[in-house]
Amino acid sequence: MLHGARDGVAVPGCLYLAVFADGAEVTTVEGLADGETLDPVQEAFVENAAFQCGFCTSGFILMTKQLLSDYPHPTDDEIKHYLSGNLCRCGAYPEILDAVRQVAQDV
User: Fold this and answer.
1) 93: domain CATH number?
2) What is the pLDDT of residue 103?
3) Which residues are CB-contacts of 5 (< 8 A; sequence separation ≥ 6)?
4) CA 44, CA 23: separation in Å to the nearest integer?
5) What pLDDT was estimated at residue 7?
């Protein structure tokens, strides 16, 4: 999640030029954990096996953090809308939805 134009707004890292992030706070999936303790979103993805190859997982986790910041108890439609910009070629979408639902219940 890059905090560029507005703090707390996720942007697609593959389309956002590094120069735009100059001086901004940048949060990556690695920055979510507290030492050895995973963030609740990371933990929910692990518990629900919401990944296969892992290539897309960082984007889904970071967008889930953004989603839960905006909508702590999202509907399925809100989840699908927020995560629609991420592509999972392995087809782990049902598990990803389960992970988001789980962490939203715990919020």
Assistant:
1) 1.10.150.120
2) 96
3) 11
4) 32
5) 59
DSSP code string of 9-67:
----TTTS-GGGGTTSEE--GGGGSBTTBPPHHHHHHHHTT--SS-TTHHHHHHHHHHH
What φ, ψ does residue 80 adopt, rounded to 5°? -60, -40
pLDDT at 8: 67
Residues of the chain short of pLDDT 50, as ranges, are 2-5
Alpha-carbon gap, residue 89 to 101, rounded angstroms: 21
Residue range(s) defining the domain that contains residue 8: 2-106
Number of domains in the chain: 1
pLDDT of residue 104: 96
